[in-house]
């Protein structure tokens, strides 16, 4: 009897009918896995059964070999699927990438096998034969394999997207004919389910597979088969969930099916066309009109006509980048967009504001994207418009002073402008494909620094033209006048090369690398390489908006643009479909089991055990609160907030100044990573807005022994730097299959880079040959092609004796080229020689016999006869190009005509080369993306055992694929009040089940570039871009609804007299820690808190920063003398912090202070000064600035005197820090007549958030300088603050200084009076003891 053929069972028997073994159903595996009902303790029954049945985890490799055969029966399909499942079960992480690479390779047979499984008809077990695919055994297991985290969360997007794209291509056959048919089958529901498979597994895996397909392909939401599948599954799922609501899996299935249901419905809604679309637009307009008449407090959207985006607008799109869907909007603006006359569509965040989308996830993401992008684009757009208007006006170029353009329009950003731009060469960039080296005039900086070393130091410390910056080249183009009134092309680009030597090598020229965004301009700039430098540089400028860093926006915008809105977690809170906030917060999904308990013992003192907390139980919470309060280092408010965080899937914690927000975050992480909970919690994702805040938080975790990895390269902490992911990956073992794929990609990149070099060389061709023009002529001028082809063959025949083809190479062969001979007019030169020879002969004959010319019958001795063939005339015509293109007689063209036609061909060839370079650039970018995906797969292997991943919000968006692959369940956001909502949104992944926001919505809001989008702006109240998610959810909305927000209520920073200034207006329940009662009084002053009231005006025309900031020289001098006085009374410079809201005042203070002290500037302030006021003001005397020379330090020491260091900061950059004594210079006062400013304006000092920060930094003493009457008249918060101080008699026109020895007091009203009444820190009376500060004997 024949034995079964094991190769045929695997689908790769090469013998076919000649095989001596048996080819029938008995060859199939005799045992197949049976599905058992899953228990609450395990959801891996399918995989475990496949493994127990003896499935070979390596058998799938045989099915995907190049010479394998198609599946011929169900047994082979079963074996293949069993093997895939067993393989993933045996190596869930380390080997999954091999399976993905082989199944998703478009050149391999893996996709063919997947397609066969999708198309193979499946039947229920009760009617299956040995040739059939059993739905319960193969199909459900196949769906589970494709929804394993090892595949769905892989960073190998190129391959996984191909796999799920294959499922989409066969959606009708698989989801409808196989899955839906079997799900609706009574045989499956009645008989098979009782013994073989749980119905919840069928629902769960089919839903998850549909979700992966829907979220990876934009067109999937419009697919009719998937739409039908979701529609018909909806009642089935609803019925099952209702019947089994007591099962934990029911909530999971309901949530996940709801996601795909909403994705499909959003897709169907976006397909509205014609009358349905017009009706939807009309409804929104009518609703907006009703809202206008109903509301009394009008917002900006209520004062404008509703003009929807893109094709929805009655007037049509505003420009070429105005689209209905944000997924179609390019992140980088276009020239057409920048010069557009109509205002962009900016959706207001008001619930009643009109929008083309209904309330819900899609509208939420749309609004966040459009507002954040406007914040990036507006300063550049408005600045460029103003610059162009100036340049096209008389004496316009004189407005550019020292390479800087300051707009008169306050809404427009200042610009850095570099003239005389020209393209130098083409290069390849690993990230951006093909880039251009561009040079520009930099003689302003070259002359200033004199030598190359000085220029290098300048550029190294400068924030100009940073890597990733968005820039614009203005090129004068007369042809452009037809398109815009300015006559300039606007070429947008990104800085991709910033080599110090190239920037500083020449005194008058600098070079940077640019990636040009729009292909039309990329090609024109490539072609400009062939032009002279003078032609290139004529009326051209390189422009950047220094206040907007493109790379800070790009990752967030790209993530918002490409994300599937319905895949976001927490949508009932973030974007409720009915527009009404859901205030009942659920327990985190991973903690919803009835048996789940939090073990709190990790936070208790040694020996205290048995503290468990059941989320959702009030009795359990009360007990846990008592235990934590008595047995841990947390105060009662922190204990309560911690329990709230553990029991709410979206947890909000407000921490007023000094209440220990960071400490709470550290203790929370300790608990989440305790042995009882580490497996379900790790890795935890910790996000912060700034690198500084992230480093501080991670340093605390490292001290607790936490295993961390920091994603990103900008850590300045020596403690954290070794844990940056690139450093960790250096010491990690690579993945073999990934290394093999990387080698292939690197080889592909090398080939493309070689092609770039070849094409770049072709751009510089001056003279073309037959090889370069033959295809061009064959396509466009066939008659000329034939003429040259005939001549070429004749030429070759005369030289080689036949018509054979040969390769043209080398100088000699180039000289024989028919096109080169034609271009050089060798035939015309031969004719000219013949003419010259005949003339010479005739002249010679005439000299020998004057009468020869009269006898035409005579023949000369050298054979020349009068009857010889006629010599053709030399062409002298000068026809236009269009006539030459139609001319077939190419050999009858004159020299000038040939050159004219050749130059035209050369231009066409160059355009073809430029077009190909553009294509190669895109291929290189795509290849780089794939290489990054492979690197991310290696990074994912490293992150698998990490407890905490730290990343800035920008980094989270930049590494979104990696974070999705890791799939952290828990996200903790520190300083959440300073984080833009869009940044938090971009940090969330579909795996996120628990979001914890810790911060203070009453302190500083997130920083944005466009004032008109901020909540401090009357217009911006409609947009609220700088409203953090913590503030939006935690404070009442327009309906009075908010999520519950825990509040820390014991502050340990400020003495009570200082805390009152923020307690009364903002935090009525804030209490003082016991330590604050023990603070000593401030030495040398009779008041620990004092408001020095004065009416000295702000600096006017003499202020060099009048257009961009504010300063008050009187206040600055008063501050300096007060600092000197405090130091003479025994304080160290490090005990004192000088704060001011304005950069202009910061610089005035710095200039006065450093005559006597070492002034410590924060690097962030130095950067802000450079961006807002220019590098000239960042450090006027050339002192070292952080980040400019030497190592990048956290602070800058401007060295004048090393006796004392004094901290000088802007208020915005001192949040989160503290000092024993704070001196606050408010600056604003009634302006001097020369200033020409409006009377009584206090600017953004009016902001309660900024005031809160300014007043809450001091521990022992707070001293404020400003116009108290003006402040309290212009701000409600300042009215309360000044009122408190007046009641305590702490407002006056003179500082109440006090001699420590004699207890005598004085009031000092001017800077000069300090020296008069207290020259050494005391008084004028003799002391008869040696003073500590100066050692004088009195």
UniProtKB/TrEMBL annotation:
SUPFAM superfamilies: CCCH zinc finger (SSF90229), P-loop containing nucleoside triphosphate hydrolases (SSF52540). Residues 1-26 form the C3H1-type domain. GO terms for biological process: regulatory ncRNA-mediated heterochromatin formation. PROSITE patterns: ZF_C3H1 (PS50103). Keywords: Coiled coil, Metal-binding, Zinc, Zinc-finger. Residues 49-58, 853-865 have a biased composition (Polar residues). One of its GO terms (molecular function) is helicase activity. Residues 29-48 have a biased composition (Low complexity). Residues 910-944 form a coiled coil. A zinc finger (C3H1-type) spans 1-26. One of its GO terms (cellular component) is nuclear RNA-directed RNA polymerase complex. Residues 26-59, 853-879 are annotated as: Disordered. This is C3H1-type domain-containing protein.
């Amino acid at each position: 009897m024949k034995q079964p053929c094991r190769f045929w069972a695997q689908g790769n028997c090469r013998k076919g009918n000649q095989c001596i073994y048996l080819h029938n159903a008995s060859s199939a595996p005799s045992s197949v896995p049976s599905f058992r009902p899953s228990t609450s303790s395990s959801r891996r029954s399918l995989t475990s059964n496949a493994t127990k049945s003896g499935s070979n985890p390596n058998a799938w490799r045989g099915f995907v070999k190049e010479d394998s055969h198609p599946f011929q029966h169900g047994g082979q399909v079963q074996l293949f699927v069993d093997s895939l499942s067993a393989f993933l079960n045996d190596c869930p992480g380390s080997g999954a990438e091999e399976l993905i690479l082989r199944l998703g390779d478009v050149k391999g047979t893996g996709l063919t096998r997947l397609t066969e499984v999708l198309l193979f008809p499946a039947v229920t077990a009760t009617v299956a034969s040995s040739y059939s695919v059993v739905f319960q055994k193969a199909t459900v297991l196949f769906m589970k394999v494709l929804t394993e985290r090892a595949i769905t969360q892989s960073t190998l997007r190129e391959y996984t997207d191909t796999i799920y794209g294959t499922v989409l291509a066969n959606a009708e056959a698989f989801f409808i004919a196989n899955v839906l048919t079997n799900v609706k089958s009574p045989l499956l529901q009645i008989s098979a389910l009782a013994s073989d498979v749980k119905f919840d597994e069928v629902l769960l895996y089919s839903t998850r597979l549909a979700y992966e397909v829907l979220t990876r392909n934009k067109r999937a939401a419009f697919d009719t088969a998937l739409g039908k599948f979701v529609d018909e599954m909806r009642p089935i799922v609803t019925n099952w969930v209702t019947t089994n609501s007591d099962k934990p899996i029911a909530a999971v299935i309901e949530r996940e099916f709801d996601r795909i249901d909403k994705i499909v419905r959003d897709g169907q809604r976006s397909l509205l066309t014609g009358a349905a679309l017009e009706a939807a637009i009309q409804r929104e307009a009518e609703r907006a009109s009703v809202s206008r008449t109903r509301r009394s407090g009008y917002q900006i959207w209520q004062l404008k006509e509703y003009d929807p985006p893109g094709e929805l607008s009655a007037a049509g799109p505003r420009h070429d980048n105005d689209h209905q869907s944000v997924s179609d909007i390019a992140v980088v603006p276009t020239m057409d967009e920048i010069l557009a006359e109509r205002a962009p569509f900016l959706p207001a965040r008001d619930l009643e504001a009109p929008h083309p989308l209904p309330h819900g996830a899609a509208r939420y993401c749309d609004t966040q994207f459009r507002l954040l992008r406007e914040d990036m684009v507006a300063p550049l757009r408005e600045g460029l418009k103003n610059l162009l208007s100036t340049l096209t006006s008389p004496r316009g170029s004189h407005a550019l002073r020292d390479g800087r353009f300051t707009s008169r329009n306050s809404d427009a950003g200042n610009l850095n402008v570099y003239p005389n731009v020209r393209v130098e060469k083409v290069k390849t960039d690993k990230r951006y494909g093909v880039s251009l080296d561009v040079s520009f005039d930099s003689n302003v900086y070259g002359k200033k620094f004199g030598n190359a070393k000085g220029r290098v130091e300048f550029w190294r410390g400068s924030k100009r033209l940073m890597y990733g910056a968005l820039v614009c080249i203005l090129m004068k183009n007369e042809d452009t006048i037809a398109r815009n009134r300015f006559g300039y092309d606007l070429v947008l680009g990104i800085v991709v090369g910033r080599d110090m030597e190239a920037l500083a090598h020449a005194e008058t020229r600098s070079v940077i690398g640019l990636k040009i965004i729009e292909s039309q301009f990329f090609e024109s700039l490539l072609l400009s390489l062939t032009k002279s430098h003078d032609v290139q540089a004529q009326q051209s400028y390189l422009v950047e908006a220094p206040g907007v860093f493109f790379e800070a926006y790009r990752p967030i915008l790209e993530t918002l643009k490409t994300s599937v809105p319905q895949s976001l977690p927490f949508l009932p809170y973030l974007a409720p479909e009915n527009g009404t906030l859901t205030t009942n917060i659920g327990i985190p999904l991973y903690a919803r089991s009835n048996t789940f308990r939090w073990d709190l013992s990790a936070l208790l003192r040694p020996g205290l055990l048995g503290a468990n907390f059941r989320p959702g139980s009030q009795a359990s919470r009360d007990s846990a609160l008592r235990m934590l309060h008595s047995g841990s280092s947390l105060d009662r408010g922190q204990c309560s907030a911690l329990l709230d965080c553990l029991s709410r899937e979206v947890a909000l914690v407000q921490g007023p100044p000094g209440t220990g927000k960071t400490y709470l975050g550290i203790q929370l992480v300790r608990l989440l990573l305790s042995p009882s909970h580490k497996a379900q919690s790790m890795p935890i994702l910790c996000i912060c807005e700034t690198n500084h805040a992230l480093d501080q938080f991670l340093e605390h975790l490292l001290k607790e022994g936490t295993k961390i990895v920091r994603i990103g390269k900008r850590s300045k902490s020596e403690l954290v730097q070794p844990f940056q992911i690139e450093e960790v990956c250096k010491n990690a073992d690579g993945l073999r299959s990934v290394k093999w794929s990387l080698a292939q990609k690197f080889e592909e990149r090398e080939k493309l880079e070689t092609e770039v070099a070849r094409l770049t060389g072709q751009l510089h061709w001056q003279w073309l040959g037959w090889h370069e023009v033959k295809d061009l002529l064959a396509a466009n001028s066939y008659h000329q092609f034939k003429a040259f082809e005939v001549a070429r063959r004749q030429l070759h025949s005369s030289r080689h004796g036949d018509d054979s083809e040969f390769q043209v190479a080398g100088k000699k062969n180039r000289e024989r080229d028919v096109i080169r001979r034609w271009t050089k007019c060798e035939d015309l030169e031969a004719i000219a020689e013949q003419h010259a020879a005949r003339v010479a002969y005739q002249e010679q004959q005439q000299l020998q016999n004057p009468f020869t010319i009269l006898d035409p019958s005579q023949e000369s001795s050298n054979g020349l006869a009068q009857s010889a063939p006629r010599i053709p005339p030399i062409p002298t015509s000068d026809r236009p190009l269009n006539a030459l293109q139609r001319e077939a007689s190419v050999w009858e063209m004159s020299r000038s005509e040939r050159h004219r036609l050749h130059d035209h061909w050369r231009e066409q060839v160059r355009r073809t080369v430029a077009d190909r370079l553009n294509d190669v650039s895109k291929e290189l970018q795509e290849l780089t993306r794939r290489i990054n995906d492979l690197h991310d797969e290696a990074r994912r292997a490293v992150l698998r055992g990490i407890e905490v991943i730290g990343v800035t919000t920008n980094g989270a968006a930049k590494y979104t694929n990696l974070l999705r692959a890791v799939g952290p369940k828990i996200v903790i956001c520190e300083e959440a009040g300073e984080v833009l909502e869009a940044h938090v949104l971009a940090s969330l992944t579909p795996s996120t089940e628990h979001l914890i926001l810790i911060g203070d919505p009453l302190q500083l809001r997130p920083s944005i570039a466009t004032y008109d989008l901020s909540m401090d702006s009357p217009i911006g109240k409609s947009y609220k871009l700088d409203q953090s998610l913590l503030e939006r959810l935690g404070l009442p909305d327009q309906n009075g609804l908010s999520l519950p927000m825990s509040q820390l209520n014991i502050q340990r920073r400020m003495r009570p007299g200082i805390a009152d200034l923020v307690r009364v207006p903002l935090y009525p329940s804030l209490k003082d820690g016991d330590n604050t009662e023990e603070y000593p009084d401030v030495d040398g002053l009779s008041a620990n808190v004092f408001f020095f009231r004065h009416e000295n005006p702000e600096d006017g025309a003499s202020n060099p920063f009048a257009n961009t900031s504010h300063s008050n020289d009187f206040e600055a001098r008063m501050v300096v003398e007060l600092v000197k006085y405090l130091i003479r009374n025994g304080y160290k410079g490090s005990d004192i912090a000088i704060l001011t809201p304005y950069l202009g005042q910061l610089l005035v203070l710095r200039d006065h202070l450093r005559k006597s002290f070492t002034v410590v500037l924060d690097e962030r302030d130095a950067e802000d000064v450079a961006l807002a006021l220019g590098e000239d003001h960042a450090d006027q005397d050339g002192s070292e600035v952080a980040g400019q020379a030497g190592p990048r330090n956290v602070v800058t020491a401007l060295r004048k005197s090393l006796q004392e260091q004094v901290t000088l900061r802007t208020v915005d950059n001192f949040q989160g820090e503290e000092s024993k004594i704070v001196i606050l210079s408010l600056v604003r006062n009634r302006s001097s007549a020369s200033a020409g400013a409006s009377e009584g304006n206090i600017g953004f000092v009016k902001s309660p958030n900024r005031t809160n920060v300014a007043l809450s930094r001091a521990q022992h003493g707070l001293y404020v300088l400003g116009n108290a009457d003006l402040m309290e008249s212009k701000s409600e918060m300042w009215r309360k603050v000044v009122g408190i101080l007046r009641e305590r008699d702490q407002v006056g026109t003179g500082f109440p200084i006090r001699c420590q020895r004699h207890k005598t007091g004085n009031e000092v009203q001017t800077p000069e009076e300090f020296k008069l009444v207290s020259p050494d820190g005391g008084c004028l009376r003799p002391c008869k003891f040696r003073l500590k500060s100066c050692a004088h004997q009195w």
